[in-house]
Amino acid sequence: MGRFAKNIVEFDSVSFRYQASPVLNKVTLAVREGEFLGLVGPNGGGKSTLLKLIMGLIKPDEGSVRIFGTSPKKASRRVGYVPQFAKFPNDFPITVEETVLMGRIQPGRLWQRYSKEDRKIAHKVMSETGVAEFASRTIDQLSGGQLQRVLIARALATEPELLLLDEPTASVDSHQEKGVFELFKELNKRMSIIVISHDIGFITDYVDRVACLNKELLCHETHAITPDVIEQMYGDHVHMIHHHSHAI
Amino acid sequence: MEFFSALTEQTFLQNALIAGVLASIACGLIGTYVVVMRISYLAGGIAHSVMGGMGLAYYLGGSPFIGALIAAVVSALIIGWVKLYWQEREDTLIGALWASGMAIGVLFISQTPGYQVDLMSYLFGNILLVAKGDLWLMAGMDAVIIAAIALLYRPFQAVAFDAQFARLRGLPVNFLYLLLLCIVALTVVLMIQVVGLILVIALLTLPAAIAGHYTKTLGSMMALASLLGLAFTSGGLAISYQPDLPAGACIILLAAATFIISAIVAARKKPLETEAEA
After folding, report:
1. Does the interface predicted TM-score (ipTM) exceed 0.90?
2. A73: DSSP letter
3. The pLDDT of residue B47
4. N or C: which end of chain A has fewer CB within 10 A?
5. 3 state DSSP class of A69
């Protein structure tokens, strides 16, 4: 069986409205197994909403969403998620190791104990993301970039088959951005990845495919982002920043 | 000191001390959740709505304790339900429950025939009036709270820390959140005997807030908060004894003074660290 064998994410003309205003309009999208998909578009274009639909946190108003051939809710334990910003207060008394171990929580159970195996997995992903040396620090002693890596480690501890990342480099220095994407490239060898980014020029070096979302899915062909598409998405006044000469 | 010699002779003082110990355990464990989840206003709402339940129980000739317990759990569930499903104007609702609970209580007590209830001991507690039967009741409530936390430490930690992630991991977040609020309600009722419903919020949050300055994990914060609670209840009781001051007020002021000192020390430590980094 080859790579990209089957679709793990299937959106069939999905629409979603937040109160009266449409956020997504008839989006049809398929993501194949093993794929590394970049998701770009303006603020309010529906990128985060798309991730929430994949995770089953919200339901579409129209159309259908299938994840791993089943409902998003049933598939959610196979999906890992890294939010753009930590949803927890920074002064919460918890160590990095305990935070990552939360990825080992077993679904649908009230009695939770971390086994030796759970701790082994937590340490493996902490080494992978470069936060093992901070294991016993509390989260308020971390920089923004370190905390982001802890969030990635927590998602990896769930051993996902599909990893969703919402602007993973928003709180990372630009010189660290490359390192983070190198990590994703490495992770992509064993899992599918969907990453939201504002930086089209940068991610085209790493992803297999880019999907441009501004309420509608404007394009999703491999490396087919032309200045026309950029203009269509962001309007006339934004110029594409040329990070790399071969990006376009 | 007179307090210590009295302690060996007077049963009521021994009972008061034990009541302080029992209340400290609950306030350390549950106060920690209240502080890290930033729900002290919510806990205050529960505490004040208890007055309605006690007043109604008095009027009907029932046990004020049972009335308090029912009122606390009902208001915890109402507030929790609004927070989970309505998701707005939660603070307005808490304020409404807070005030109307008090109003209902005062109304029913004023209409209760026969003797007038000592309102002051509800509002400010009277640790010196704790009877032996109350102690057993408090010990039983402590046992329930300890058992719940021992069994559900991880899920509660996950819900308190990051409810969205806990939900994605398939935990029954809404159930756990409402259960935690019910345990907060139970704790509030347990502690009303010691410091009264007006001061309960301080004993619930101050030891945990101080402990938060020095601890790295939820578990150690709970342990230190319980020890601090123990020090405040015993210390406040000792201070109040000789000059015959209200014990509840002394306990709270001792806790508040310690909190202020600790907060200043913690705040002085932090800016120095960031300066060193910069």
Report:
1. no
2. H
3. 93
4. N
5. coil
